[in-house]
């Protein structure tokens, strides 16, 4: 085989290998199976969150149910379409397999070795595997019935017959007259054109199939991310250095740095807890590390807290190169630990989004996200709070805000529990 012919055959072989991967539609059938598995597991994941005590994001139940309904309507159709698209390309697949046999035979006539092919060595075999994978991935959905015959390919039972041999077809080719006069260069040209046409056909089929999913993959991915984030909140809350109060429920727990002073060493790193009753800053870091990297002592403890209702305003800003530092400033009214303070929120959160969440917590809007009864014990306690001290009879002067669990008499110091 001349160097030029050898190069052409090698390039053709590489192109065939890529085409076999394309025809197998592994990515399409894998997505079909992965989506089915993920969607089926979402309700159990949401239940785990509820079992662990997370009472918010009540949209998750409805969202997972809706995704399941949408998937049930689409899954069988997608599986069916994969099979039909491959059936539609069967004539081209058979043509390419046949041309490869002729090329094997033509090279053998000239005393040249047949070009080695990887994998199953046949596009027809790859197509069968892809159809079986699509059928398996679509199992459990309402199928539209058996795939209809397409072109000269006939039915699936006919297609399931063993594929034609990939090489060694010299005798068969000579007997049929297919090889007589056939030159390798001409066959290579025909193969190259046929494989390009099939590649374009399968690419178009994949786009059509992926278009059938609509927004389901994006919404599934978003739901998984939301569940994972809540699991992170609960894991962090489980390691907190302080106990939750009666009736207190975790809403968010995010990484934050309290901007206590100008010197970075004075600014505690840790976690900011947001609940239906409080906002709590907990230091959780290693201090005294050498060169900022080695050794150090683990420190964990509550550094400040405030009733969530004492927050009167939340502002935000982005600083640093490319706006990579997200800062929020909390302003407090009566019952707050100070007039205002600033924190850097991390976890990849955007300051604007997080400020909005804090405002919702401060105003009590997060109760609309609660599972079950939205009216919390704390809200009832605020509404039913006494106006006079039971000991000295003085009127309470301290305003009562959401999240407060007790109130003290300014005159005699009596402490009254709320709720």
Summarize the structure.
This protein is 47% helix and 16% strand. The protein is of the alpha+beta class and 419 residues long.
Overview of the structural elements:
The protein is α+β, with helices and mostly antiparallel strands. The chain folds into 2 domains: 3-219, no CATH class; 239-369, PH-domain like (Roll), CATH 2.30.29.30. It has 11 helices and 9 strands. The protein has helices at residues 3-24, 26-51, 59-88, 90-109, 123-137, 156-159, 170-176, 184-211, 216-238, 351-363, 377-383; strands at 250-258, 269-275, 278-287, 297-307, 311-319, 325-332, 340-345, 406-408, 415-417. It has a 7-stranded antiparallel β-sheet. A hairpin with a 6-residue loop joins strand 8 and strand 9 (415-417). Helix 2 (26-51) runs antiparallel to helix 3. The protein is elongated and about 110 Å long. The N and C termini lie far apart (92 Å).
């Amino acid at each position: 085989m001349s160097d030029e012919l050898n190069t052409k055959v090698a390039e053709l072989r590489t192109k065939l290998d890529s085409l076999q991967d394309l025809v197998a539609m592994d990515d399409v059938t894998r997505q079909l199976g992965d989506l089915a598995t993920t969607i089926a597991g979402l309700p159990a994941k949401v239940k785990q969150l509820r079992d662990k005590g997370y009472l918010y994001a009540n949209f998750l139940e409805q969202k997972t149910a809706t995704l399941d309904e949408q998937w049930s309507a689409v899954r069988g159709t997608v599986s069916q379409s994969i099979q039909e698209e491959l059936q539609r390309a069967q004539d081209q697949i058979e043509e390419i397999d046949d041309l490869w046999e002729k090329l094997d035979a033509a090279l053998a006539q000239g005393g040249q070795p047949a070009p080695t092919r990887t994998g199953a060595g046949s596009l027809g075999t790859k197509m069968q595997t892809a159809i079986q994978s699509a059928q398996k991935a679509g199992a459990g959905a309402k199928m539209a019935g058996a795939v209809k015959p397409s072109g000269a390919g006939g039915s699936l039972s006919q297609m399931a017959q063993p594929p034609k041999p990939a090489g060694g077809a010299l005798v068969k080719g000579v007997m049929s007259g297919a090889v007589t006069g056939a030159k390798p260069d001409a066959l290579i040209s025909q193969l190259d054109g046929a494989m390009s046409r099939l590649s374009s056909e399968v690419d178009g089929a994949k786009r059509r199939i992926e278009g059938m999913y609509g927004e389901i993959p994006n919404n599934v991915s978003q739901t998984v991310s939301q569940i994972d984030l809540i699991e992170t909140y609960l894991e962090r809350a489980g390691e907190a250095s302080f106990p939750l109060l009666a009736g207190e429920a975790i809403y968010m727990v995010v990484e934050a740095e309290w901007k206590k002073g100008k010197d970075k060493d004075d600014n505690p790193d840790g976690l900011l807890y947001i609940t239906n009753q409080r906002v709590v800053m907990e230091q959780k870091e290693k201090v005294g590390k050498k060169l900022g990297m080695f050794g150090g002592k683990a420190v964990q403890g509550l550094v400040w807290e405030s009733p969530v209702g004492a927050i009167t305003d939340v502002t935000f800003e982005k600083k640093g190169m490319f706006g990579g530092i997200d800062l929020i400033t909390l302003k407090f009214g009566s019952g707050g630990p100070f007039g205002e303070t600033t924190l850097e929120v991390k976890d990849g959160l955007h300051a604007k989004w997080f400020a909005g969440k804090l405002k919702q917590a401060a105003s009590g809007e997060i109760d609309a996200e609660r599972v079950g009864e939205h009216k919390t014990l704390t809200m009832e306690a605020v509404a039913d709070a006494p106006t006079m001290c039971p000991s000295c009879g003085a009127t309470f002067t301290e305003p009562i805000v959401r999240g407060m669990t007790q109130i003290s008499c300014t005159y005699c110091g009596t402490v009254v529990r709320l709720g």
